[in-house]
Amino acid sequence: MSISLNKPRPKNIYISTNVSCNLRCIYCYEDKSSNKTFDLEKTKSRLNKILTKPSEQEFIINLHGGEPFLIFPQIKELCEWVWAQKYPCKVMFFATTNGTLIHGEIKDWISQNKNRFRLGLSLDGTPDMHNVNRSNSYDKIDLDFFIKTWPSQGIKMTISPKTIHNLAEGIMHIHGLGFKDIRCNFAEMVEWENDSVSILEDQLRKLSDFYLDNPGLKRSSIMHLNLIEILNTNSPIQKWCGIGEMNALDIESDNKYPCHLMFPSVCGKSKSDKSLSFDFNNIENLISEQCRECEFIRICPTCYGSNYIARGDFALRDMKLCQFTKCRIKIIAELEYNIILNNSNNLSSIPTDKRIYQLRMISALEKLIPLLH
Ligand code: SF4
Ligand code: SF4
């Protein structure tokens, strides 16, 4: 009998708690008008069925708003009830928040439970960038609290057509505050100007210089793509995320969905219903004709749920974001080349695993560079 020493990956459960929000972010496409909240008793009973099964796995219960802390008493009751059940598995909670309500009693409770309830903060760059995107809310966030409470937790930074001009400054600002992991995404379902690709290129070059000067910093996700994947042409193309394999429970409709973007409150009832019969196990269903022949398909990230909401097809990617991805590949390839060049003088001091990585990267760059020019 073989024994696996690998710890099983945590299992995610998504619960829609409320759709209401106290902000009106310029890129938000969810309908915030309803004051409906989740049914506490029904949720407890659904969770009980999942969590009582003996399991070595850790569960992460993702609370999906709106802004979940608008209904803090219900959130607190749910968490304390779950923790009191002494389930045979570890249960963590996670919520993405706009941070504006994390003060006073809520902050105290979160502090007491910081090892079993993590918060991911949405922060869109400098005060000006954040305020233009996110309803003038920068000064309402206790940034110091977030940095000190979860120093390694990622920040969610959304880039909109109104902030792309200052993208580099925004990322440097967040690094300067002390956050270590900056996860950038481009706003979906918004109108991008024609010149936004050249603006992006200019901003990414500034960032590239910044990271070359600060090699100890973890690069923001916008400056990171696994370029080496382009060499793996013999292995099947992989899905970008766990869509179709998630426990995304919508308490209101009492249904399990392929991902939380498929909740009726997010994509509408008709699309939501249709998503239930889609086969996500067949990768062919998730690749459009347009992308099938593309050399970058293995390194081009996408959110299938956003594709479905915006264009009615999980496979149909946003072609403006396609240009952004190609621009990112080019600048990241140049950055990787410059890093290798900088290291070439002291090759003997580089550990073997890093040297092997560099050799693989050189092969990837040799393949990529002709495609990019
Ligand atoms: S979106 Fe563009 S870069 Fe990405 S796979 Fe499709 S064609 Fe290629
Ligand atoms: S489809 Fe998008 S939102 Fe859903 S799991 Fe995948 S990346 Fe996440």
Features:
binds iron/sulfur cluster; single chain; disordered N terminus; TIM Barrel; 373 residues; 8 strands; globular; 11% strand; 2 domains; alpha/beta; two-stranded parallel sheet; six-stranded mixed beta sheet
In brief:
This protein has 373 residues and is an alpha/beta fold. The protein is 39% helix and 11% strand.
Write the layout of secondary structure elements.
Blueprint: E1 11-16, H1 40-51, E2 59-64, H2 72-84, E3 91-97, H3 104-112, E4 117-121, H4 127-133, H5 143-149, E5 155-159, H6 167-177, E6 182-186, H7 196-213, E7 247-250, E8 255-257, H8 264-267, H9 269-275, H10 289-292, H11 304-311, H12 319-343, H13 352-372
Parallel strand pairs: 1-2, 1-7, 2-3, 3-4, 5-6
Antiparallel strand pairs: 7-8
Helix pairs in contact: 1-2, 6-7, 7-12, 12-13
The protein binds iron/sulfur cluster (2 copies).
Description:
The chain folds into two domains: 221 residues, TIM Barrel (Alpha-Beta Barrel); 52 residues. The chain is 39% helix and 11% strand. The chain has 13 helices and eight strands. A six-stranded mixed sheet has the order 4-3-2-1-7-8, covered by helices on one side. It has a two-stranded parallel ribbon with strand order 5-6. α1 runs parallel beside α2. The protein is globular. It starts with 10 loop residues before the first strand and ends with a helix. The structure holds iron/sulfur cluster (SF4) (2 copies). The site of one iron/sulfur cluster (SF4) has 10 residues, from α10 and α12.
